[in-house]
DNA sequence: CGACTTTGACCCGCGC
DNA sequence: GCGCGGGTCAAAGTCG
């Protein structure tokens, strides 16, 4: 099945109605608003510990600092900055859903009370430090929980890739349209 | 050879 | 203070 680069939720069966509202790539539902719809996570027997996933947590600044020792000291004095976080569930055989962005995996941890590990990904765009966590639910192994942290400050690469031929055509047609 | 994944070690916050 | 759990780092390995 060819995943849709624009609407990643369409390439996966949405596991819960609220999950659709929380799709971060849905252009009609910006993340700022989606963050208000996190209540779907609470009170459900999911096998996933939602609280740490959804609650805002301190985020370090100055991640481009060179040197591990410098990094350690910066972590000790990290500022408390709350970033938008939003989670949604998809029913998919793949752990990582294709949301159109490129991600680099930087860690994986076994999670308590869960037989599946949690994976940590970072957006590969150099100016974008959006992160996401991916974890498969214990009670329903066909459901994958994806938690995004932050908002992309660059266009979706796959979307731009798909649109570029179209944009070229528009540019070619622009002078013609001006004549009409 | 660059981009990416794997994985053990490390760090930090929090509860006891 | 100590141990635990979660998050991140970074070296080594893999892949195209």
From TrEMBL:
Biased composition (Basic and acidic residues): 65-74
Name of this protein: WRKY
Pfam family, one: WRKY
Keyword field: DNA-binding, Nucleus, Transcription, Transcription regulation
GO cellular component, one term: nucleus
Species of provenance: Musa troglodytarum
Compartment annotation: Nucleus
Ranges where the WRKY domain occurs: 92-157
Region (Disordered): 18-82
MF GO annotations: DNA-binding transcription factor activity; sequence-specific DNA binding
InterPro entries assigned to the protein according to its UniProt record, in alphabetical order: WRKY_dom, WRKY_dom_sf, WRKY_plant
Lineage top rank: taxon: Eukaryota
């Amino acid at each position: 099945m060819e995943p849709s680069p624009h609407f990643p939720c369409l390439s996966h069966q949405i596991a819960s109605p609220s999950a659709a509202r929380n799709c971060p790539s849905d252009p009609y539902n910006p993340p700022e608003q989606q963050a208000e719809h996190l209540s779907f996570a609470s009170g459900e027997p999911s096998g996933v510990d939602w609280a740490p996933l959804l609650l805002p947590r301190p985020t370090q600044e100055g991640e481009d600092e060179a040197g591990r020792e410098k990094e350690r000291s910066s972590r000790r004095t990290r500022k408390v900055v709350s970033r938008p976080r939003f989670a949604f569930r998809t029913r998919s055989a793949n752990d990582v859903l294709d949301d159109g962005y490129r991600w680099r995996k930087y860690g994986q941890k076994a999670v308590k009370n869960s037989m599946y590990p949690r994976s940590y990904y970072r957006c590969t765009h150099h100016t974008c430090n959006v992160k996401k966590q991916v974890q498969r639910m214990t009670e329903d192994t066909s459901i994958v929980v994806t938690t995004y942290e932050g908002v992309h400050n660059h266009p979706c690469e796959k979307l731009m890739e798909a649109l570029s031929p179209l944009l070229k055509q528009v540019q070619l047609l622009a002078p013609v349209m001006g004549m009409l």
